[in-house]
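We were asked to recover a plausible sequence for a given structure. The inputs and outputs are reproduced exactly as logged, with field labels preserved.

PROBLEM: sequence recovery
POSITIONS: 192
GIVEN STRUCTURE:
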């Protein structure tokens, strides 16, 4: 039974910029592996293979234009018990439309609606025992964060491999957006 989600890959230039942010984290925190950096569009979870294939087929019908995106700002999920540091995304109606299309594809495959509102972000680090003051000091040292814009020319169906706390992730299938140029030689393995 695969654990699936759709998302947008973070390009190499932006991954390198994120890597330059890395510093020791309090309380057993760890930075996300650069190859696992992504922006989740729609989390699906553990589903049976036939439904996974139906979801992938529904994703294939998404017909939207490629668009520009920029990561901007840092934040924390978890409030007084912080659990992750994330990079935000500048407002993008095209990104919102892509997330809605991914949700419609999930529902057409018989999956329940996502109960959480879409909050676009890239998880940069996972925290274990850090307190809010320690994390606030880390964010203060990191300062303002903004990447160069990049073109989103495709989105992908990821599967999560067995491991605690996210990653490693594998690309199961890629879906090109209209007008986007993406030069990649991926060996896609549909071995759910």
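RECOVERED SEQUENCE:
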């Amino acid at each position: 039974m695969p654990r699936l989600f759709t998302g947008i890959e973070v390009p190499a230039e932006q991954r390198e910029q994120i890597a330059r942010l890395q510093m020791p984290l309090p309380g057993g925190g760890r930075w996300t592996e650069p190859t696992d950096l992504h922006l989740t569009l729609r989390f699906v979870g553990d589903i049976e293979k036939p439904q996974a294939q139906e979801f992938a087929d529904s994703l294939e019908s998404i017909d939207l234009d490629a668009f520009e995106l920029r990561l901007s700002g840092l934040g924390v999920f978890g409030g007084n018990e912080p659990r992750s540091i994330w990079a935000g995304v500048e407002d993008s109606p095209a990104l919102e439309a892509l997330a809605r299309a991914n949700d419609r594809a999930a529902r057409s495959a018989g999956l329940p609606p996502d109960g959480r509102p879409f909050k676009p972000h890239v998880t940069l680090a996972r925290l274990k025992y850090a307190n809010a003051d320690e994390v606030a000091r880390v964010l203060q040292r990191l300062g303002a964060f903004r990447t160069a814009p990049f073109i989103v020319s495709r989105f992908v169906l990821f599967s999560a491999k067995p491991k605690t706390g996210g990653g490693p992730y594998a690309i199961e299938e890629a879906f090109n957006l209209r007008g986007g140029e993406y030069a990649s030689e991926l060996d896609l393995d549909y071995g759910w």
